[in-house]
Amino acid sequence: MDAPQNRSLADRRLLVEPSILSADFTRLGEECRAAMAAGGDALHVDVMDGHFVPNISLGPVICEAAHRAAPGAFLDVHLMCTDPGRWVDPYADAGAGHIQFHVEVMPRPAALVERIRARGMTAGIVLNPDTPASVCADAIPLVDTVMLMSVHPGKSGQKFIASVLSKAPELLAMMRPGQRLMIDGGVSPATAPACRAAGISVLIAASAIYGTRDYAAAITAIRG
Ligand code: DX5
Ligand code: ZN
């Protein structure tokens, strides 16, 4: 069996991705390695452009540093950006394995997905809490993953919005076998069971992992 850090999104089991947004940035490399050693399946890299969301975070140099610190870790880059196309090459160069962009800014993403794949990466769409599943109809056939935001994007440590799970059946009905439904925001040992029951197979968590002393216990509890 592959070492955990070599698993990619093609792996079929439930995946837990620590989001480095809540890592201690004074020790970023150590934090990346610790989350993977604790059982993380990939690292989630949150990119905020100060426009699509008010905050700014994790530019390509930080992604590249995470890649250098944990070269075996699959990097899932979540672009909370108004112009995702601008960032495909910089994050590909920085070691990204998967690029996710928001369907609100790119409802018909054929050209963007082609560019992401041309750089050897997989691609995913993300929906904000208030975005209906129907908005994804044109994009779903093109991508590898669909991700529900269960908080309003922009920061970690927010309360899980359980009502977003009601979109899961409609999304899963539009998805083909092999595509993964993901969730991001407020995921914790307390909220993960409802996510898993809704058919979500990739769980992202920042504060519920990095905000604890025992990353392995948190990841195990989220995995269930
Ligand atoms: C929110 C980010 C999330 C964030 C999750 O804008 O997209 O990935 O890191 O943080 P928690 O798990 O603390 O809600
Ligand atoms: Zn995210």
What does this structure look like?
- With 224 residues, the chain is of the alpha/beta class.
- It is built from 8 helices and 9 strands.
- The chain has a 9-stranded mixed sheet.
- Strand 8 (180-184), helix 6 and strand 9 (202-205) form a beta-alpha-beta unit.
- It is globular and about 40 Å long.
- Mean pLDDT is 95; it is low at 1-7.
- Bound molecules: D-xylitol-5-phosphate and zinc ion.
- D-xylitol-5-phosphate is lined by residues 19, 21-22, 44, 46, 78, 151, 153-158, 184-187, 204-208.
Characterize this entry briefly.
With 224 residues, this protein is an alpha/beta fold.
Task: Please specify the SSE layout and strand pairing.
Elements: E1 15-18, H1 28-37, E2 43-49, E3 56-57, H2 60-69, E4 75-80, H3 88-93, E5 98-102, H4 110-118, E6 122-127, E7 145-149, H5 168-174, E8 180-184, H6 192-197, E9 202-205, H7 207-210, H8 215-223
Parallel strand pairs: 1-9, 2-4, 4-5, 5-6, 6-7, 7-8, 8-9
Antiparallel strand pairs: 2-3
Helix pairs in contact: 1-2
The structure holds D-xylitol-5-phosphate (DX5) and zinc ion (ZN).
Low-confidence stretches: 1-7
Number of strands: 9
Mean pLDDT: 95
Q: Termini, distance in Å?
A: 21 Å
Instruction: Report the bound ligands by name, code or SMILES.
Output: D-xylitol-5-phosphate, zinc ion
Silhouette: globular
- Over all CA atoms, what is the radius of gyration? 16 Å
Keywords, separated by commas or semicolons:
224 residues, alpha/beta, nine-stranded mixed β-sheet, 8 helices, globular, disordered N terminus, binds D-xylitol-5-phosphate, binds zinc ion
